[in-house]
Amino acid sequence: MRFDPPPHRKLVYETVIPIRWGDMDAMGHINNTVYFRYMETARIDWCRSIGCMPEQSRQGPVIVNAWCNFLQQLRYPGDVRVKHHVTTVGRTSFDTYVTMERSDDPGVIWAEGGARMVWIDFASNQSLPLPQELREKIS
């Protein structure tokens, strides 16, 4: 089922990831779990680029929900252009929306997904308000 892209979204990161031979499954297309790896790679690279990597002894973002719609079957060889957006920003959480395109087919979305990320204190496992510095980067 295709969802309409969130009307309010901010592109915060974009990267190109090579499709590897080992990303395919027995059916000859990219395994469904690999799409989540592509989103994870973009998310972690983005978090690193803005300085919000989780520090296990302190605080950071965790994912409480993730989803993916597979619109077309990606196949090897090729590259995936992953565009990472922030949509809704709340007090302790924010939502992301991710699109995946083939680099040789620009503008055509092959898969879309996203995640809700919550800022937590790792010691207490409780949510915390988003740091102001992060809020300024994602709003």
Brief summary of the model shown:
It is built from two helices and six strands. The chain has 139 residues and is of the alpha+beta class.
Strand percentage lies at 35-45%
Cα radius of gyration in angstroms: 16 Å
Mind describing the biggest β-sheet? Answer: 6 strands, antiparallel
Label the CATH architecture.
Roll
CATH classification class: Alpha Beta
Number of strand elements = 6
Which stretches of 5+ consecutive residues score pLDDT under 50? none
CATH fold name: Thiol Ester Dehydrase, Chain A
Class per helix and strand makeup: alpha+beta
Supply the CATH superfamily name.
Answer: Hotdog Thioesterase
- Count of alpha and pi helical runs: 2
Silhouette: globular
In N-to-C order, the SSE pattern is EHEEEEEH
Return the average pLDDT rounded to an integer: 93
Whole-number count of domains: 1
Oligomer: single chain
| End-to-end C-alpha gap | 28 Å
The percentage helix is: 10-25%
Task: Describe the fold and architecture.
The model has no long low-confidence stretch (mean pLDDT 93). The chain has one domain: Thiol Ester Dehydrase, Chain A. Strands 1, 2, 3, 4, 5 and 6 form a 6-stranded antiparallel beta sheet that branches. With 139 residues, it is an alpha+beta fold. A hairpin with a 6-residue loop joins strand 4 and strand 5. The protein contains 2 helices and 6 strands, in the order βαβββββα.
List keywords for this structure.
139 residues; alpha+beta; Thiol Ester Dehydrase, Chain A; six-stranded antiparallel sheet; 41% strand
Topology (SSEs and partners):
Layout: E1 10-18, H1 32-50, E2 59-70, E3 79-89, E4 93-102, E5 109-121, E6 126-127, H2 132-138
Antiparallel strand pairs: 1-3, 2-5, 3-4, 4-5, 5-6
